[in-house]
Give the backbone structure.
Amino acid sequence: MHFLRQRDGLRVPSSEITPRADYENRREWLKAASALGLAGLGTGLGLEAQAQTAGPGKLAKLPGARSAVPGALAVEKLTRYEDVTSYNNYYEFGTDKSDPARNAHTLKPRPWTVAIEGECAKPGRYGIEDLLKLAPMEERIYRLRCVEGWSMVIPWEGYSLAELLKKAEPNSRAKYVEFTTLADKAQMPGVRSGVLDWPYVEGLRLDEAMHPLTLLAFGLYGEVLPNQNGAPLRLVVPWKYGFKSAKSIVRIRFTEQQPVSSWTKAAQQEYGFFSNVNPKVDHPRWSQATERRIGEEGGFFAKKRATLTFNGYEPQVGQLYAGMDLKKFF
Ligand SMILES: Nc1nc2c(c(=O)[nH]1)N[C@H]1C(S)=C(S)[C@@H](COP(=O)(O)O)O[C@H]1N2
Ligand SMILES: [Mo]
């Protein structure tokens, strides 16, 4: 099924089976909103929260209220669930795009614990059930741009990572946040290969990690994350290349020094610490000016989209990098 999100925030499945009650509710809400002079205020009001992206009914439901965070709802056609869950990068399960969907059934997302450590007043360990209840679940529609030159538009369920980080009360020495993900040979066949230096480690500057758009995701399409997409919890940092969005996180550490990410370790000249999506800074081996939207390929005539600075999130995150030379700090 394809879903369209229209400018007014209405979401219409292409099969045109929008539940009638939902539609009626919305009409009522629009009437009420215009009476109050609220029309055109956009997302995040009243009945918006009722609209959910229909899931495929494969995994446990995980509904999220439509997010009110500015920029959190991309107005774009969603990538099909089938594509989101069968075309993946998750090297712990193999390096082919089809490997994670085929191999990740051995990942055990329960029980699961995330350790919070380092430069903070309240380190601790959180079980997945507590994390699910830590803050209200929101639905966010983000563009995800892989450094390889493809992109998707995915409805995620989760909440701002800041909700969890602030509970730990980072101290004045905390300048960065390091994320470590599971590396278990028993569950992950790819960890026996030397393709990366396991475990997979990523990092963000503290202000990037605290930005409301930085999402701690537990689900997609209204259901819990499929294993291949990083169950039971992962990051989604929409203005950065996909590899910054670490899957199946087991440890979060506040640090004074800039963390060394697995991809930087593998090829320092190719994968910088920031890795903000930037059409003007090419990867040493290929251009980053355009991208291919998964599901839109048209063979020989495939249309390429222009890649946007900060993946289109410049209004929200541009000021984080004011005065920085983005060619140097790539
Ligand atoms: N642990 C871990 N996280 C990871 C990766 C990985 O190989 N291992 N791949 C990254 C890359 S390169 C991308 S593009 C995204 C892909 O997320 P998706 O498969 O859910 O689209 O996950 C990122 N997170
Ligand atoms: Mo990627």
